[in-house]
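User: I would dearly like some help making sense of a protein record. I have put the entry right below:
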Amino acid sequence: MRYMPHTAGERKEMLAKIGVSSVDDLFTDIPLEARLDGLLDLPLHASEMVVEKNFRALAAKNLSPGEVPCFLGAGAYQHHIPAVVDHLIQRSEFLTSYTPYQPEISQGTLQALFEFQTQVALITGMEVANASMYDGATSCAEAVLMACRVTRRKKAVLSGNLHPQYRDVTRTTLQFTEFAAEELPANPAGAEDLAAHIGPEVACVVVQNPDFFGRLEDFTALAEKCHAAGALLVVVVNEVVSLGAVKSPGEMGADIVAGEGQSIGVPLSFGGPYVGLLATRQKYVRQMPGRLCGETVDQNGKRGFVLTLSTREQHIRREKATSNICTNAGLCSLAFTIHMSLLGETGFTRLAALNHAKAVTLAEKLDGISGVSIVNDSFFNEFTLRLPTDAAGVVETLAEKRILGGVPVSRLIPGDPAFANLLLVAATETASEEDMDAFVNALKEAI
């Protein structure tokens, strides 16, 4: 091994120190069927030109959302990103920056994060926001942990219409803690009696708006019932553009808001990296995970920025940390901040209105197809279709026609025949009239 930095003797000493006889012993928790028993079916070596050619051929098999009509959603959305965003985030001072431990030489990074926090607090209707999480799913899990710490209770109630991947990540996060989650079944109609599940052991109720199926709801009454029982309300938002049009979680009485900021400034990028959002009430700030950038003045009275709160394990004793998140999606949060600054309040609300208008137009076109019906009684820019046939097969047929026609619900909730014919469809500002008509005509043929 030309690039192995340690000698055989050093490796043997390290293995002995941790009490194993070989490196293979470190992988005993991984099932045998999940391990490779030999080399991958790849050439042992190839020239740079050959590797580039092979990878270009692989990339050509992808159907890029930027090149074809795209109606994908389900937590990741195709939005237009102004060219200036990419230009600014590629400046060397941003590309080379890391955790701003020394505020006197990290003022630009700290100010960018401070502005990011301000924007997130404003659009969510909350009092304070942190300096970003990894993504919406991990932010949701962190919100549940935070609620358990605040209330000193050990159970979270998860709405059945919370994004399935957010549920999965939350469940995974909780499995080795003293906390647990009660997960309700998914229901496209949105008829959940969440209040009936609030007991003295419940730390929080977690809901999503718009929910996984695109349905909108006002959770003000639920927030009041949570508070009356000593529980917190966590509202998840995975299409952040919706906050430019609908009642904010803060106005509904939410205690913690967890969300995904990908829609602003961050491309789809085959699923990541994205940027998690987390905001809360000022009174809970000491239990907020991650870190908080603040504004102050130096000894000369000049404006400056600092890490006001750093309660993660890199900064304090691990057992006292509110989170083990080891970094933040700094470049993605910067892209979010730049794009949001370009939009401004007026532009953000106009963008939201345009998204809703596009979705309404598409819904009207699709509702006219025989055998197709819209499940939702409300939506922002995404809704659920019920097809007369298997949705996954229809999506594959549409892809062959070079149309990304949505996400079959069965991909995210597999194994349940009740969801086999359901298709999630999103229409953002990028969907043109021609794109919609192409989708409608192709869907008619596909079913």
User: Anything to note?
Assistant: The mean pLDDT is 93. The radius of gyration is 24 Å. The domain at 84-340 is CATH 3.40.640.10 (Aspartate Aminotransferase; domain 2).
